[in-house]
Amino acid sequence: MNVKRLFGSILTILGIIGLIYAGYGFIKQNMQWRELLVAAVIGLVFFVSGIGLVKNTKDEA
């Protein structure tokens, strides 16, 4: 398996987890808004970069 594609998948999963964590915190309003904003931004960066890596990496056997 291609290392870039694997790393992109890991980044995508971490991004999804970060976005879910931030969304849950916003709904429950149990944390500081700065912490949730930082988690959301980092999750979004991870998610977009992971999707970009998976999308732009070609499969070569």
Keywords:
61 residues, mainly alpha, 82% helix
Summarize the structure in words.
Keywords: Membrane, Transmembrane, Transmembrane helix. The chain crosses the membrane at residues 6-24, 36-54. The structure is a single chain. This protein has 61 residues and is an all-alpha fold. The chain has one domain. 82% of the residues lie in helices and 0% in strands. It is built from 2 helices and no strands. The chain has helices at 3-28, 33-56. α1 runs antiparallel to α2. It is rod-shaped. It starts with a helix and ends in a 5-residue tail after the last helix. 15% of the residues are buried.
In DSSP terms, counting alpha (H) and pi (I) runs of 4 or more, how many helices?
Answer: 2
The shape, in one word, is rod-shaped
Helix fraction? over 70%
Q: Termini distance?
A: 9 Å
Low-confidence regions: none
Q: Which structural category do the helix and sheet elements fall into? A: mainly alpha
Order of helices and strands: HH
Biggest sheet details: none
Helix/strand layout:
Elements: H1 3-28, H2 33-56
Keywords: Membrane, Transmembrane, Transmembrane helix
Transmembrane segments: 6-24, 36-54
Brief rundown of the structure:
The chain crosses the membrane at residues 6-24, 36-54. The protein is mainly α and 61 residues long.
